[in-house]
Design a protein that fits this description.
alpha/beta; eight-stranded parallel β-barrel; five-stranded parallel β-sheet; 17% strand
């Protein structure tokens, strides 16, 4: 079924003043960190946006562009801000986007204020002398009135440059607790001059920014604003306060609203994770819909299905896809062509996208190694097919087989069990892990489409296996195995390995459950059990749980664990397991924790010896990827599989 039949509202055009969109698929703004040092777009960045325009998105919104570079130290290097060079850079991206039939909206911001990362020095500004989010011991400098006026003129200059660069719309960035948001919100604005105090004064900067832009672009050019419906932390802006702001901005002349929720202080909404659910910020847009008839755009882990329903219900007017567009830039075209099952699912893991931003690295994607590197990485058909053996049918092995098959090689994948998926099979069992289930199914479907990929089940491979003798290339992806600690009683009948529990929930009985190990698998298991009404305690010997998890995913997980009543004990070591619980030790003090049953979630270790045995015999033509190399996340395994296979000439 064609996309316009199954998703008619997503493929309905939309007109907002002079902006004409061919569908309702919007590529949401998200930093790529791939620009040149001075802020000029790189060829890599230009190709990133061109690829998503080519993929069928009607509107491309690049990452926020700064109208001044003096408000904080981390953007001081963007020396082209406000100059013709900045306009030329915008023009290059605009031309690339227009060449593929899409429109472009430039998002204009004046800094992150107190939310700015501390990559370099201090020198950060804010509405008032606010503590920095990343370093509360340091306070931001309160902008002077002259500095505020400079920001307003920066918006005026930027608007002129957007027009010169062929932009189709402008979005004023007043979200995430960034600079404009800090002026709009009382908890951050303690000023006593004309830019603080009353509602009108707190709205003065955003008003002047809007008026400066409007004075340049005219009445028929659309101006959006991006803002949160509420902040979701004590002292932050409430929904009713935001509704007052929306009414004001509607009357002021804003043409459309880009609405979701949260800010840095609330954490879990910055880039929602699997623990917040699909279309997790749609409710925020629904509330704002009550006070404005202007078009509303909304992000927050939408699927095509949730987006179609939201449009059909009249809650929003366009659907924004951020990380989903990173995972599969061809999402709209695949939907249009009736190939819904071929859309590569986003895991919402935040590892290579948002997680890279906080450490000043260009983004990429756990499931799409080409993301943000389209200029460099692509799968080219070979003129000399090789015989490729892939050992292991987990996520890394399947990706290796897929890529090698697409290149035209003859691939045989050997899987020791009777199904594909590896550790993703148990990992995907919790109800909230639906995206892992979808990704595993996607990988399997892609292999089924390739005639030159053969899958052999129930067939373990060792260094002595004759199947390796005629291989031109061997990719070893045999995974890991559970880590076994020497703890008395760990082999008791009341102890269930976390993988066994996920594969068969009936193995875990009783009400009081103790989970040993606060890694991702242990915490996910604890959350699943708590959601079923169990009394769950996590014991972790380190000073924090899920230490390897990126903060954008960790924070929503911790919220979910707390909301479901999971007791977390860190700096606590299990010393002995008994039939009725476990002895633990914390700060030299021993304590007994009662439990009906106990989950062994101490983690995994690489099957390095088996992998090395193969590599030592066939090293020149072999690659070791995923958990058998080192305990890895899904993205490491998938990307390892992509690169190992794509390097085969």
């Amino acid at each position: 079924m064609k996309g316009n039949e199954r998703y008619p509202h997503l493929f309905t055009p939309l007109q907002i003043k002079s902006l004409q969109l061919k569908n309702r698929f919007i590529e949401a703004p998200m930093g790529t960190f791939s620009e040149e040092v001075n802020g000029y777009p790189s060829l890599q960045q230009i190709e990133y946006y061109r690829t998503r325009a080519k993929g069928g998105f009607a509107l491309i919104i690049p990452e926020a562009q700064f109208v001044v570079s003096k408000t904080e130290a981390w953007i001081a290097h963007q020396t082209i801000v406000g100059t013709a060079d900045q306009m030329h850079g915008w023009l290059a991206i605009s031309e690339a986007v227009h060449s593929e039939g899409a429109k472009i909206m430039w998002e204009l911001g004046c800094g992150l204020g107190r939310e700015a990362p501390v990559f370099v020095g201090n020198g950060t500004s804010s509405a008032s002398e606010n503590p920095l989010f990343y370093n509360p011991s340091v306070k931001a400098h309160a902008l002077t009135v002259d500095e505020i006026h400079e920001i307003v003129e920066g918006y005026r200059t930027a608007a002129k440059h957007v027009l010169m660069a062929g932009g189709d719309a402008i979005e004023i960035h007043a979200h995430y607790g960034y600079m404009l948001d800090q002026f709009m919100t009382p908890i951050w604005n303690h000023r006593e001059d004309e830019y603080g105090g009353s509602f009108e004064n707190r709205m003065r900067l955003v008003t002047e920014a809007y008026e400066a832009v409007r004075s340049v672009v005219g009445d028929n050019f659309p101006i959006f604003i991006r803002m949160a419906a509420y902040h979701d932390f004590e002292g932050g802006r409430t929904l009713e306060e935001s509704k007052e702001i929306v009414r004001y901005l509607d009357n002021l002349g804003i043409d459309a609203f880009d609405i979701d929720l949260g800010c840095y202080d609330s954490g879990r909404w910055l880039t929602p994770a699997i623990y917040t659910g699909e279309a997790s910020m749609l409710g925020a847009a629904a509330e704002i819909r009550k006070v404005t008839d202007k078009p509303i755009f909304n992000a927050g882990m939408h699927s095509p299905e949730s987006g179609e329903k939201a449009l059909a219900d009249g809650v929003i007017d366009a659907v924004m896809f951020g990380r989903a567009s990173i995972a599969d830039p061809n999402l709209p075209n695949k939907i249009w062509e009736g190939c819904r099952d071929d859309v590569r699912p986003c895991l919402a893991c935040n590892t290579y996208c948002s997680g890279h931003l906080v450490v000043n690295k260009p983004i990429s994607c756990a499931v799409n190694a080409e993301a943000n590197y389209e200029l460099f990485y692509h799968i080219d058909k070979t003129d000399a097919p090789k015989n490729v053996v892939v050992i292991g049918g987990g996520p890394g092995g399947m990706e290796a087989a897929r890529v090698a098959g697409l290149k035209g090689h003859n691939v045989t994948l050997y899987e020791k069990s009777g199904e594909l998926g590896g550790t993703l099979i148990p990992a995907a069992k919790p109800a909230f892990k639906n995206r892992i289930r979808a990704f595993t199914a996607w990988q399997i479907r892609q292999l089924e489409k390739l005639d030159n990929v053969r899958i052999v089940f129930n067939h373990p491979i060792t260094a002595d296996s004759p199947e390796l003798q005629d291989a031109d290339r061997i990719i070893i992806a045999i995974g890991g195995e559970p880590l076994k600690l020497r703890i008395p009683g760990l082999d008791g009948k009341n102890v269930v390995p976390v993988i066994d529990y996920h594969l068969d929930n009936s193995k875990l009985q009783g009400q009081k459950i103790l989970v040993m190990g606060g890694g991702a698998s242990g915490c996910d298991c604890a959350l699943e059990l708590a959601m079923e009404g169990k009394d769950v305690t996590i014991v972790e010997m380190m000073d924090d749980v899920v230490k390897a998890m990126v903060s954008y995913t960790k924070v929503p997980l911790l919220y979910a664990l707390n909301e479901n009543g999971v007791n977390i004990r860190v700096n606590t070591k299990v010393t002995e397991v008994t039939e009725t619980g476990a002895w633990v030790e914390a700060d030299g003090v021993k304590e007994f924790i009662e439990a009906d049953m106990i989950v062994d979630a101490f983690g995994m270790k690489p099957r390095r010896n088996e992998a090395n045995a193969i590599f030592n015999k066939y090293g020149h033509i072999s690659s070791i990827i995923g958990d058998c190399d080192h305990t890895a996340q899904i993205g490491e395994a998938v990307r390892g599989g992509y690169f190992a296979a794509n390097s085969i000439k």
